[in-house]
Amino acid sequence: MKIGFLSMPLTGHLHPMTALGRKMQARGHEVTFFGLPDAARVVHSAGLDFIPFGEEEYPVGTTPAMYAHLSTLKGEDVVRYSFQEMHPKRARITLEQLPEKLVHTGVEALVLDTIHFFAELVPMSMGIPYAHIWNVLHIDSSGATPPCLFGWDYEDTPVARARNMEAVKKMSSVFQPIQQVARSWAENNGLQIDWNTPNATTSKLAVITQTPKEFDFPGIPQAPAFHYAGPFHDHDGRETVVFPWERLTGEPLIYASMGTLVNGLIDVFRTIMKAAAAIQGRQLVLSIGRNIQINDIGPIPASAIVVSNAPQIELLKRAELCITHAGINTTLESLALGVPVVAIPVGFDQPGIGARIVYHGVGKSIPVASMNKEGLSGAIREVLGNPSYRDAARRFQRTIAQTHGLDRAADVLERAFQLVDESGVVVGEASNSWSRKSNN
Question: What is the Cα–Cα distance from 342 to 382, expressed in whole angstroms?
Fold first, then answer.
């Protein structure tokens, strides 16, 4: 079957999506990625075909420049800027240009990055079956738990549920500029959608999150098409990263990274440097990304290694602790290797991930707005000194190893597209008219 993949042009989305694409390709399917030009390098490194759109509006190099300002923001400002200043144009270009690419390639089914908002309108209009992938932490809009944009603790009380629903309403209002673009395109293309119904355009065939169920809060109601999987890691298909391995001292390693998006807060890196330097007998490896320069963070201890980009998984294999922005990929990669974490959530889904880190006892979480050297040092010492955190992380290591997230996701996709039945027998391909009819 010819299966198309559409991903945001960001490594945190492309790495899990290309891993899933490679898995589907290994099962005999013809896989083609679509996206803005900056996605090409990562997709090609994964050994997959890529077809760009938006070349004029988003030439190569646009993504880093576009996210440079975002990298300096915190909290709700991150979401507001992203949803109101960046996503509407991206949604418009996708809706205008993706249909021609799909027609030209003859794609028979689509696997969509959920954060590529409303891209599903294209396959809906063309009668192509589609599935959604949550590369980030999925959003609970039921009110049963806090939406992941908020870092509140889990509470099963009427007061907490009322608070959660207010957060859902607030989140929806910030989302309006993107929805306006989608509504206009849908109306012009004859799609009848009840925009007052949450998730009206979400796939009815399959919605898959790479978050393991065991890492989520309990009691979240889910649609029949929703599936927990597990991390989409195949430890392959990524670009080679140069790293000074000879500088490792053999001391227990503290690995720290603030990800690739909201990583332009110089004071955060300075605080990490000072707090980690106060921990005796450990070596710090700090990955700062490309939005700041190494000289910006001040004096570097002699044993510390500071780089713009790091081979994260290989370093986590040697790490005793991970200091992270609480991005879902870094968090799950740490837990998959049994490494406890100290989280410094900045924005997007990171507050919700930080809350789950605390809830499941695999680490500590300090909101970036209240983080200081003393608080971070205390959190590091507690996680390193209390074996319960490593024990909890190792329980997740066993769980993730047994989950086989990529295989589970691929199984769900093949059933969703009617390629196999529950017993694994090939039965044919999904009906395009079924997908369009069931989503209108």
Answer: 10
- Contact (Cβ atoms closer than 8 angstroms) between residue 309 and residue 289: yes
Characterize the bridge pairing of strands 207-209 and 226-228. Answer: parallel
12-41 b/e (C-beta count within 10 Å ≥ 16 → b):
bbbbbbbbbbbbbbebebebbbbbbbbbbe
Terminal CA-CA length for the chain: 25
CA distance 229 to 404: 8
Using only C-alpha atoms, the chain has a radius of gyration, in whole angstroms, of 21
pLDDT above 90 as % of the chain? 80
Non-local (6+) Cβ contacts of 7 within 8 A are: 13, 14, 17, 18, 33, 35, 39, 113, 116, 135
* Secondary structure (DSSP) of 128-183: --EEEEESSPPP--SSSS--TTS-PPP--SHHHHHHHHHHHHHHHHHTHHHHHHHH
Residue 433 — very low, low, confident or very high, per pLDDT cuts 50/70/90?
A: very low
Over the stretch 392-431, which tens digit does the pLDDT of each residue have?
A: 999 999 999 999 999 999 999 999 998 644 444 445 555 4
Pairing of the two strands 305-307 and 130-134: unpaired
Q: Which helix (H) or strand (E) holds 307?
A: strand 305-307
pTM of the model: 0.92
| Helices 176-188 + 158-174 axis angle, to 10 | 60
How many C-beta atoms surround the C-beta of residue 325 within 10 A? Answer: 26
Q: Is the pLDDT of residue 56 over 80?
A: yes
| Cα-Cα-Cα-Cα dihedral sign, residues 88, 94, 99, 102 | negative
Element containing residue 276 per DSSP (H, E): helix 266-277
